[in-house]
Amino acid sequence: MLRSDSEKLVRKVMAKFVDEEVIPVATELDNKGEFPYHLFRKLADMGVLGIRYPKKVGGSGGNTTLYCICVEELARGLMSLAAITAMQCLMATDGLYRYGTKEMHEKYLRPAFRGEKIGAFQLTEPEAGSDLSNVRTLATKVEDGWVINGMKTWSTSGPIGSFHTVLTQTDPDKGLKGLMFFFIPADTPGFSHSKKFDTLGTRTSSLSEIYFNNCHVPDEYMLGELGRGLDVLLTILAEIRIMTACLAIGLLRAAMDDSIRYCKERVQFGKQIGKYQLVQAKIANMAVNLEAGKLMCYKVTHLIDNNVPCLNEASMAKYFTVESACSACDEATRIYGAYAYSMEYAVQRYYRDNRFLLYGGGTHEVLQTTIARQYLR
Ligand SMILES: Cc1cc2nc3c(=O)[nH]c(=O)nc-3n(C[C@H](O)[C@H](O)[C@H](O)COP(=O)(O)OP(=O)(O)OC[C@H]3O[C@@H](n4cnc5c(N)ncnc54)[C@H](O)[C@@H]3O)c2cc1C
After folding, report:
1. Which stretches of 266-376 are DSSP H helices?
2. CATH code of 57's domain
3. Average pLDDT per block of 10 residues along the chain, 377 residues long
4. What range does the domain containing 176 cover?
5. Which of 92, 113, 134 is the last residue before a domain boundary?
6. Element (H, E) at 271
7. How far, in Å, from the CA of 284 to the mean position of ligand 1?
8. How far is the CA of 171 from the centre of ligand 1 (A)?
């Protein structure tokens, strides 16, 4: 596939950053499980946090393809850093950019691009995972704005976020048509969160429950037109799915790179293990899936950059690349033998981190259903 000069340059700069500054500290950061503020600030200085926004609002003037290249390279180094960055660039800030006032841009959007404020995006509730029609966080109209009551769960950057884009229900009788997003700063009275979850993977991410107890926000904090809340999500749904697919491509590459290195190092029965055909088959499968996955992903990012609707293609790319990454991480743990079981080697982290990709952007059962529906109408 032909690449523009800016795509090649962003790839080169990000690859260097990941090789020199992320991979050497990735295991240590994951073990500590702390948010990597210093790397996040460096990404802000490099212009990554505003990469898909125009320069007039403080962004870097890039596009979805450049954004996805950054996400892919970061995921090759450390999945949780990539996931936090991906969230900051897209779900946490897109509604604020599209529907926020100039004052909100000055106070929250520009500082988010500078890495000074962290954003979060909250759909999921204890009773509403895939089924968003069951969202119960209630937004009630009052004279001078809206009052929000309810709770969210599995909020990435929830405990450390300065502002939150939150899906609420404005009229339970209307179901999906009553859904609306609200912008809620973390210093709004009545806002609170649980302690950070202890999780299997992506351990430098901070996840928590979020509580809204009579949180009062002004009218301009409603993101979008009343009754069109789902459109706010649909505007970026293809981008959310392709971003997750690019996280998967980065992880697949990490698992493959480490597997190739180990195949050349490890000698058994007098031969490098990479000389055995059954081991070669694993590398071949990784390579074929990587090539196919990249073609799918960057076809979709180019469609998005040219304003061509592509939700089905994005769903297929997410499904294929995440399944491929899960398979590659599994195969890598077999190639490493017992050493995959040691916390010293990164393959155990890849194996734990790949689970996260199965849920965000739509579970695979839901994606399979929606893909099949396109053909069975
Ligand atoms: C690390 C991590 C970070 C996250 N970050 C965020 C975040 O920042 N913000 C946020 O809002 N959420 C976040 N989530 C939550 C994530 O979006 C949800 O996990 C996801 O929406 C699925 O919901 P659920 O886990 O409740 O699963 P459920 O929807 O309860 O699904 C359970 C099982 O049932 C299957 N299933 C459900 N419905 C159907 C159907 N119609 N047909 C076939 N099978 C079905 C699913 O595929 C799955 O296998 C995060 C999750 C994780 C693990």
Report:
1. 277-305, 311-335, 347-357, 364-375
2. 1.10.540.10
3. 85 98 96 93 97 97 97 98 97 97 98 97 97 96 97 96 97 94 98 96 96 98 93 94 98 98 98 98 98 98 97 97 98 98 96 95 95 93
4. 119-227
5. 113
6. strand 271-272
7. 32
8. 23
